[in-house]
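Changelog note: in this version the structure field was regenerated for every chain. One regenerated record is shown below for reference.
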Amino acid sequence: MLAVVVRVVWVAILFAIPAVNQAVIGPFWFLLKISYLVYPMIWFRGTFPRSSYDQFMNIGWKIMIPLGMAAVLINAVLGMTRG
């Protein structure tokens, strides 16, 4: 708990100094955005079991290919009727 308080105070002091603020603000936002992207990935990997190669192949052949073909067909029909 004390470590969290010390880190919060350190960051507050760091951002209070204008010269340091200009040098730190870019990497801070970059690392914050990366953290928002990486955290759900790690959470997903830790929560759900691993999928095997044959499971991905089944999803691809039974779901994704028919879904893609249906999307192309719908797009073609809408393109022909509207234009």
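Spot check on this record: The mean pLDDT is 86. Residues 59 and 65 are 9 Å apart (CA to CA).
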